Each structure stands twice: as structure tokens, then as C-alpha cells.
Q: What sequence folds into this?
């Protein structure tokens, strides 16, 4: 499943799942533009890819800001070429009881997790339409499949990502562009470690008795980004170790 000759954008690629996705795509031959709010994180990912013999650039910016998205897209096209693969991974989470969620907290979650993929996709899908080939993979969440306490704003935002995926899959099905989503289960990432979660205790409750690794998600994304997934669109590729069975 070589991705040689393809240019990929991975948002939120500065650490965790995003870093793993960028690394795996680069390992399969894609030239990767790593977008992240953290310039340091993005550059660390890109530098590691280059050190391994791959091609990557690092771009810092807010994926939920239209001007920043346009600027990052312009530089990506200038340095790497038109974008063929987009992975909308950038996102935030929070643990707040429903009655404690403020309007500001709700708006922030929707802005980053749902408006961001809308803006980035709208900017980059033009390259795919012109080429008659494209792969869009959205990172959703298993919590949007099962529900989750104290995360209603997060769950709502990721549910929106799933709906956006299905709508775009139908809209672009005859244009050579596939649109799918990967809902990670319990993955051991820096973001999870920063939350009020006992990672080892939760991992012990999983059917596989372990937390997922960022690479588990990355390999699922790599399949959906490949030529071999050309007849797969609008689909859910759950990567959760059996936590939720579709």
C-alpha cells in the first residue's frame, strides 16, 4: 500500500496519535505536512520523519482559523505540491459534568473539533477535485458511538465529525474522493495522560486488557488513505480493541 508521490496533511501532528499517523504515512512514501498548534511539536515530528529518510515539513497554526488554514495550505502546496490525503486529527477534550459546561467551553469544543475539520477540508478538497483522487480520514471517537459521562460537549463535537464524514462521502463518491472516519478507543496518549484518568486501571477493563497505541490508529488510517481502499467510503473503521462492537 505505497503512498509514494502523494502529499498528505495531518492536523494535530505534533504528538500522540497525530505524530504516529504522520510517521506511518511518511514510512509508506507520502510527503507529509505536519500541522499543529505547537511549532515545537510539529517540528519534532517532521524532523523524526526526515531523519528516517522521509519527506516532511512542519507548520504551526490553528486548524480552526480560516486564515491560518489558508496560509498553511499555501505553503504546503508550494513546498510539497497539491494535497491528496487529509487526516483531520487535531482536537481537544475535557471532562466536565453537563451542568458545569459553560457556553465558552461548549463553543471551544465545537470550534476546534468540528469547525476545524470543516475549514481544513473545505480548503484542501479543491486539490483532490482537480486531481480526481483524494482521501479524507477524520479522527472521531468511540465516545460518540457509546456516549460518555461528563463529556457531552466532546461527544457532541465528535458526533458531528461522524455526520460530516457521511455527508461528504456521498457528495464526493463519484469524484474519486473517499471520506471515512476512525474512532479510536482507549488510546494511551499524552492527551489521555493529562486527564483525570487512571490509564492502567481503565486498560485492565478493556477486552484486550491493554490500552491502544497511537500506531494502532495510524495503521487504520494508512489503509483508508491507500489505493486499496478506493471502494471504501463513508465507513467507520473502529480501532478500539473490542471496546465497542459495531
A:
Amino acid at each position: 500500500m505505497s503512498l509514494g508521490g502523494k502529499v498528505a496533511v495531518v492536523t494535530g501532528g505534533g504528538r500522540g496519535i497525530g505524530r504516529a499517523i504522520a510517521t506511518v504515512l511518511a514510512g509508506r512514501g507520502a510527503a507529509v505536512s505536519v500541522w499543529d498548534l505547537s511549532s515545537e511539536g510539529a517540528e519534532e515530528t517532521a524532523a523524526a520523519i526526515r531523519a528516517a529518510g522521509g519527506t516532511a515539513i512542519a507548520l504551526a497554526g490553528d486548524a480552526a482559523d480560516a486564515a491560518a488554514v489558508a496560509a498553511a495550505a499555501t505553503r504546503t502546496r508550494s513546498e510539497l505540491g497539491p494535497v491528496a490525503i487529509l487526516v483531520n486529527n487535531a482536537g481537544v477534550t475535557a471532562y466536565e459534568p453537563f451542568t458545569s459546561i459553560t457556553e465558552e467551553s461548549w463553543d471551544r469544543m465545537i470550534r476546534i473539533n468540528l469547525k476545524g475539520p470543516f475549514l481544513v477540508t473545505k480548503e484542501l478538497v479543491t486539490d483532490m477535485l482537480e486531481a480526481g483522487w483524494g482521501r479524507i480520514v477524520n479522527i472521531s471517537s468511540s465516545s460518540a458511538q457509546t456516549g460518555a459521562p461528563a463529556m457531552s460537549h466532546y461527544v457532541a463535537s465528535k458526533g458531528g465529525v461522524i455526520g460530516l464524514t457521511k455527508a461528504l462521502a456521498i457528495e464526493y463518491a463519484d469524484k474519486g474522493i473517499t471520506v471515512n472516519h476512525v474512532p479510536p478507543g482507549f488510546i494511551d496518549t499524552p492527551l489521555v495522560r493529562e486527564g483525570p484518568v487512571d490509564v492502567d486501571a481503565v486498560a485492565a477493563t478493556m477486552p484486550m486488557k491493554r490500552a491502544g497505541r497511537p500506531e494502532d490508529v495510524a495503521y487504520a488510517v494508512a489503509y483508508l488513505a491507500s489505493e486499496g481502499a478506493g471502494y471504501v467510503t463513508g465507513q467507520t473503521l473502529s480501532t478500539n480493541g473490542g471496546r465497542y462492537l459495531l
User: Anything to note?
Assistant: The chain is about 45% helix and 15% strand. The chain has one domain: 7-229. The domain at 7-229 is CATH 3.40.50.720 (Rossmann fold). The two ends are 26 Å apart (CA to CA).
